[in-house]
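Subgroup meeting minutes
Present: P.N., E.W., G.H.
Scribe: E.W.

1. P.N. recapped why we're keeping a running log of single-chain structure predictions: easier to compare across weeks, and new members can see raw inputs and outputs side by side.
2. G.H. added today's entry (119 aa).
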Amino acid sequence: MNTDKIYAEAIANEYSPKETSKVIALKKLDRKAKSKANIFAYTFGVAMTLILGLGMCLSMQVIGDGSAMMTGIGIVLGILGLAGVGVNYPIYQKLLRTGKEKYAFEIIQLAKEISESAE
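Output recorded in log:
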């Protein structure tokens, strides 16, 4: 077995022009349909979790001056964070459904073409 030849072919394949197949196009459309929902869910979830944590720290007097006002602000922030974390998944589902509806026709057409050509 000539490993130099295999290595050379592998490198040549990296630089050769790629054909875009229908399966790759289908995967790209699927990712495109889901990307807005995923980006929102992760960003909003992280932000609300940080707000919840800040509220917990303020209400338990880990940070801040320990006054009643800071504890009250911490409780309000904690409740806001809990509400945000609680609504994150329903918002994600709605955005995902919207994205899927937007690209459904193209994805179904491409999937039909792939399944027909495979037969």
